[in-house]
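Example record used in the benchmark description.
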Amino acid sequence: MNNAAGRSPRRTSAASGRRSLVVALAAALMLTSCTADDPAPQPLSSSSVTVDLATFTFGAAADPQTLDPALANDTESYRVTRQVMETLVGIDPLTSEPTPLLAESWEESDDGRTYEFTLREDVLFQDGQPFDAAAVCANFERWYSLPPAAQQDTPRLPFENVFRAFSDQPDLSLYEGCTVSSRYTLTLQLSRRMTSLVPALAAPAFAIGSPAALAADGAGKLSRNGARFAKAPIGTGPFELVSWESGEVQLDSFDDYWGEHGDVDHVVFTTIADAGSRARALTAGRIDGYDFVSVDSAVDLARNGLQFLQRDPYSVLYLGMNQDFPGVDDPLFRQAVAHAIDKSALIEGRFLEGTKSARQFLPEKLGIGNETVTDYGYDPARARKLLKEAGYDGRELPFYYPRNVSRPYLPSPEKTYAELSRQLVAAGFNIRPVPIDWSEGYVDAVQQPGDRAFHLLGWSGTYQDPDNFIGSLFGGYNDEFAYDDPQLVSKIIRARSLPAGQERADAYADISSQLSDRLPAVPLALPISALAMSPRVLSYPVSPLMHEVFNRIDLADVEPDRTPFG
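Model output (structure tokens):
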């Protein structure tokens, strides 16, 4: 167990007993295990379950990979770090536009190359250190100066996606520096205009950590899960870490939080990899909510009177193709793949109602038209003809897909793979399945050089800008696709620097068109994702960008008393 450093001794309170609710359950009710190792329902050992009214227990689909958001690229890590750490910029719950958070205001100058931020003055870190401009600049310098070894530890680090490069490639980086103007004002300097800067700073990867806690690691000790901060983050958020061990994370309300405390005093994230097991745990009262509701569970949840909270789609599922694998570098081969896929049949019965087939990698929410995007209609005869023209000799094609996980873009990976594989085989492809457990490094396996031909993956947006998708996926060469297109990268660099407006939207539409012609991957679906909540959750801050901080949860019959967990 990793305990948060510097916490005061835990207190006990008789009030916690008075705030318990005994929920009577029918004798026939079956209680599911809360681990993926034992997904089968288990009988109750008694006729009641005790629920602490000020504790919110969330069924997570996977363990966090790290609690250092700068080194994370997964939903479950961010779900926890959003509670503990905050960003300069917030996200409007209705529009997803940037709003003030740790920064009260900002001003752009120098043709978009300089931004001055004015900070809140009433904020403390959870270690008691003051939040100020020097703390913010210390974080920016840490991100910019990330050692090469730490860069390689996590593919597609957010700082590189947004600012293009780190300090070891200063000529490529858009980041030039952070200057303290006064205790509560700072200036960010860029090498050129970056229209997406302010929205990007709302992404959880840019949460501000305590400089004292960060300094304890030292520059040479940074890694996804080997550094102290990655196991015990210190931020300014409404909750602070109590413990993190395999299968469970516990948080307490931060007494000195500058904002609203809300109804929730304690948070427990318990990992339940199987979607059906999460549904049964919610029905049995073992958890208060969970994410990534599957099609199979949706009807039963409604029948049991549980809440179904749907997000607007802001992720994309794609079939990745590795052009380092023999034959995949032939455009005719990749066109054959695109024509072999029946996206409507793939979606039906495997994704929630409202999920749409994807023609490009940008969600509709961003308003970028797809009129010029090549539409590869389902045509298996055409696929077989193109395969023959490409000289495909029937060699085995390794197809990587994840197991034992749910993602916003992929609620049922095994079922999705099975249908996609069936369609490809019917068109003449010789598929060899390569299942890899998500928890055993699936993302690393498909984003590094390897023997795969195909893989299933997706991208979930964390801020509202087309560059969050296009730039992150295709803004430079990466080993996932082995796709090298300097002209496309130049177009993305230019689009980033264009002022908001029609010209910028047209630039991203042109980039989408080029991607559809060259096919480094096939966009498959723009999935609907949904949460399920127990009746005791009166409101939950649903966000397409998953900016869901639990101090904004309203619970029934709660009298918060700030008693630490335990």
